[in-house]
Structures are given as structure tokens and as C-alpha cells.
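> call design_seq(struct)
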């Protein structure tokens, strides 16, 4: 569990992608507002779940936090140090403490390298191990993630999807980081394999004292692994709360809609409950709606929703939501 000390502080983070047009001179004609003013804090030892529909900006947010893509503006502080605007050399030293598990276990591993090279390269690049010591540490990591020492010399195509994701986890653990950003680490896997990977992530979190930013579509998975959950819609966080509090008393209509889509194991309860079915498509991030970005699909929308953007406010202790007409308050 979190010890209360902030490890990652994101403040008003923005990432826009320019759309340019022209033959001789490129000029900007529009912008894709992928991430548009996101703020949150992640404490040491805590798991923050990040949920939302496809295209809402979750993956872009993860990459902007780790400076894999340069933010347009905003602040990202890791262990008290600002990341935005730092040189590549400065970031290289700090990236030992921040690692990422990518969504696709098939595309995130170099098919031309053996497993020993994939996991060992970070150790060698940072000067932490070489030769026999490097091989020993890589084999130890393979054992910790449920693979065998004999897998050291195999290529990624010789493994199943779940095994490849274990290799990705071993690579992320190689430098003993404090923070791991897991971008939908189980979405491409079978249900039985998902459970194994989730249990593995929980085990290594306790063993290594990790903090997770955990991105997923499956709200059941997010509730199982998360201490807190942030709900994202069209580039903005619309609700942020403790996991149990958010599931029991969701405030934002979008969160209510997401939770009503989660199936209940009891078929009678599942058939009897009232569902909130959203109508229409997600608006384009190139031209998002004015005011509350959810108002075009919200059943409780009024005139104030179309004109004024709601701020992210505390409606209950440590339960923030951005809505003019909050539910369950």
C-alpha cells in the first residue's frame, strides 16, 4: 500500500499533435488534442488505475509522462525532480527509475535479439553488469517472472503471448525501478493468461516496492489491482477516487455508464439492473465539444454543460469529479 509520499506528480499536462497542410510550406491547420490538461499524483507503493474508451488519450499520456513523446506543456515531477524540458542525457540517468510495460507483447520485443539480450541490454547500457554477472542476473529475472534459465538463448517468436509479456516484465524490472507504467499489459492475452500476469505484477510489486500506473479497459481487472482509479474521457480526467469508492458511488455520468456495462456473474441481477447506454460516437479530439466534453452523450446535460467547463472538484474526501450535475452525492 502507498506510504503517502508522492512519487509522480503530473500537473496540467498537455500533448497536442499538429495537423499540417501545404506543398511548399507546411502550415498548421488544426491540432489533435490527445491529452488536454491532466493532473494527478501517484504515491510510493500505490497502484493508480487509468480507464477510458479507446482513443481517449491513455497511451499518449503514459508516453508523455515518461518523455517518450515531448509534452506540449505542463509539468511532470518524479521523486521531486522535473522531467519536462530535460536533456536526453539527464533523462537517461532518471529513466533507470521509470520503466514501461507495453501493450502488445508481439511488437514490443525485437525479433532479431535473443531473450538474454533483450533483458540484459538495459543492465549493460547503464553499466550495471557484464559477462557472467550479466547472464546470472538475467537468468535470475527469468526465474522471478516464471520462465526458465534455458529460455535465455531463445528468440521472441518461440514463445506464447503470455510468455512474451513475462519477458517484457523482466525487462522492465531489470534496472530495479521505482515506477512502472503498464499500458494495457493484459489486453492482448487470453483470460486465463491475464490472471497469471496480474498475479505476477502483484507479486513483484510487493517484492520490489513498485508503484504502478496501470492502464486497462477491463474495469474488473482495474478494481482488482488498483488502490485508486482515474477515469479519462477525450483527453481529460473526469473522475479520480479510491477504487471501492468509485465502484460503489460513481459521481460522473461517464463513470456510471462504464460501470453499467460491466457484466454481473449472476444472470438475474445482470438482467434486472438499470443500464446507462451511451448514444452517439466519441467526438473528435481535433474539435472537442465546448464546455463539458461529455455533454454530447450525457443524459443529464443542460445549457451550463455546453458553455462552462466543469472543474475537477472534491465532492467527497479524496473523490474528485468534473461534473455540473454529479450523481450519488
Amino acid at each position: 500500500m502507498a506510504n503517502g509520499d508522492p512519487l509522480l506528480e503530473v500537473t496540467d499536462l498537455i500533448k497536442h499533435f499538429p495537423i499540417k497542410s501545404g506543398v511548399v510550406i507546411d502550415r498548421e491547420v488544426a491540432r489533435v488534442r490527445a491529452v488536454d490538461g491532466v493532473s494527478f499524483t501517484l504515491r510510493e507503493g500505490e497502484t493508480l488505475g487509468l480507464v477510458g474508451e479507446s482513443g481517449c488519450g491513455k497511451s499518449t499520456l503514459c508516453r508523455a509522462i515518461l518523455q517518450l513523446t515531448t509534452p506540449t506543456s505542463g509539468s511532470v515531477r518524479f521523486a521531486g525532480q522535473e522531467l519536462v524540458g530535460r536533456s536526453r542525457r539527464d533523462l537517461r540517468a532518471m529513466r533507470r527509475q521509470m520503466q514501461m510495460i507495453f501493450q502488445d507483447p508481439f511488437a514490443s520485443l525485437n525479433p532479431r535479439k535473443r531473450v538474454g539480450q533483450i533483458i540484459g541490454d538495459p543492465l549493460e547500457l547503464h553499466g550495471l553488469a557484464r559477462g557472467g554477472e550479466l547472464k546470472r542476473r538475467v537468468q535470475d529475472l527469468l526465474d522471478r517472472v516464471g520462465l526458465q534459465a534455458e529460455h535465455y538463448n531463445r528468440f521472441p517468436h518461440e514463445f506464447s503471448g503470455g510468455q512474451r509479456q513475462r519477458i517484457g516484465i523482466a525487462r522492465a524490472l531489470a534496472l530495479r525501478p521505482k515506477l512502472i507504467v503498464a499500458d494495457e499489459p493484459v489486453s492482448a492475452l487470453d483470460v486465463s493468461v491475464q490472471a497469471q500476469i496480474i498475479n505476477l505484477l502483484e507479486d513483484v510489486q510487493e517484492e520490489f516496492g513498485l508503484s504502478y500506473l496501470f492502464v486497462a479497459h477491463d474495469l474488473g481487472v482495474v478494481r482488482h489491482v488498483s488502490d485508486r482509479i482515474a477515469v479519462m474521457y477525450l483527453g481529460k480526467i473526469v473522475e479520480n477516487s479510491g477504487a471501492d469508492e468509485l465502484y460503489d458511488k460513481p459521481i460522473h455520468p461517464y463513470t456510471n455508464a462504464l460501470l453499467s456495462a460491466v457484466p454481473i456473474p449472476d444472470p438475474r441481477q445482470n438482467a434486472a439492473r438499470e443500464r446507462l447506454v451511451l448514444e452517439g460516437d466519441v467526438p473528435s479530439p481535433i474539435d472537442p465539444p465546448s464546455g463539458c466534453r461529455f455533454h454530447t452523450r450525457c443524459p443529464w446535460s443542460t445549457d451550463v454543460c455546453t458553455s462552462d467547463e466543469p472543474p475537477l472538484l472534491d465532492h467527497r474526501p479524496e473523490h474528485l469529479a468534473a461534473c455540473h450535475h454529479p450523481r450519488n452525492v
